[in-house]
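User: Fold both of these, please.

Assistant: Here is the first one.
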Amino acid sequence: MREVPEVPELTQGQPGRGPAGRMPFQVVEVTGPSMVPTLHHGDWLLVQYGAPVRPGDVVILRHPFQQDLLVVKRAAERRRGGWWVLADNSFAGGDSTDYGVVPEEFVLARVRARYRPLKKDQRSVLGVVAWAVSALRPVSAARSVSRRLRAR
């Protein structure tokens, strides 16, 4: 995952800003397949830093072993010591099944919306209509993670 370059980084100490002096809302780009089918490589996310997290929310967090790496996962449940996070794509790995509970302070932001950019093969009228219907969606806790946890 990477920040979209047009969004400026802000300095610390400004009122109304999130952690590390960031604006409370920011746009980031998804890289990789770990959140398919919810999120795809190239999707843009509107994230809110410092927002309260509930089980089922899609969140941005620091990787527990590579803290300069930001990842997007689903907060499955709160456990002693932090959050148990899961990838929606169980074949991709790279979640709490690999690295355990993520400390609370590593969970940085909650994903509020997903924007799927128009692809080159969607330039037909039908393609543009299909894109317009699905391009901007709120990302919510609607997907049940409890079903997935019971299946493990």
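And the second sequence with its predicted structure:
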Amino acid sequence: MLQRPPRQQYAALCYRFTPSSGLQVLLLTSRETRRWIIPKGWPMKHKKGHAVAEREAYEEAGVRGKAEKDPIGYFGYMKKRKSGLTVPVMVRVYPLRVDEMLEDFPEKESRTLEWVSCTEAALRVQEPELRSLFLNFSRRAEAIVPEKFRAVGR
């Protein structure tokens, strides 16, 4: 039996730095199953992957920022279609530093948002490859942490 290649989606790993908590990432709940995810969506005509990730971050989580042009990795999952059929999806993930959080955004009423550490995010998500992306991102973050948020003596 022939198997179709995975469908492609683009996602934003939204992050920020705070003086009290350091690096935090944004998780949100999916609309249907209420599991913890990151903003993601299908390709859009005439938009590159990082631009789709920025758009999805705005629509699903009400955040604005600039996504990096190169993805930090991928994760796969099985998407359940309305027909009941499940299809494999490969999600390309772009880091997005959050500059602004909006009070109002298109999917505000259907999502719950929470800022957490990368370790906590890895514990909450179901996809093993996404867990790894969070943990790898926290290790990489040392290079992008603003000087004012680094611990004294480091």
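The chain is about 20% helix and 35% strand.
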